[in-house]
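To: structure subgroup
Subject: Chain for Friday's discussion

All,

I'm putting the inputs and outputs inline so they're searchable in the archive.
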Amino acid sequence: MSSAESVLHPEMSLISSIKVVLPTFDANVLREKYEVLGLSAQQIADEFASSRTTVLSALKRVGIKVRSKNDFHGRLSTPPYGKHLVNGKLVDCPDEMKAIELIQRLAFKDKLSYRAIAKTLTGLGIKTRKDGSPWHHERVRSIINRILKSKKEK
């Protein structure tokens, strides 16, 4: 950039002199935090005062396979509907499994919509995990999607 351009566009000279320094992450530290401890990219980013996308790029750069959003990462904040944590292991919850079987029948055999299934479950007095609040069609949708995903994987 010429000195005349600098005078006419002083912001350009400032921008051209800024250098971006990306943080470097030790591969062993990333592997420990991401694979062994099961931390998310966001949790690692928060720990290193970095961004999630920077951490994801670093994971890829050092050859660590990045999990998709729904992949199991070694820790469960809330087990999926139909399961409970007992001594750190997922086990079936009989009452919730009965509700899942009913959801399957209503969706695949009776061909009811998500909303109709939610109304049916609420009407039958089947409890949700959330203080027995009424069923919501999005909760039904997520359960059906999980059922379809598990069938697809088999």
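Points worth raising on Friday:
The radius of gyration is 25 Å.
The chain has a mean pLDDT of 82.

D.
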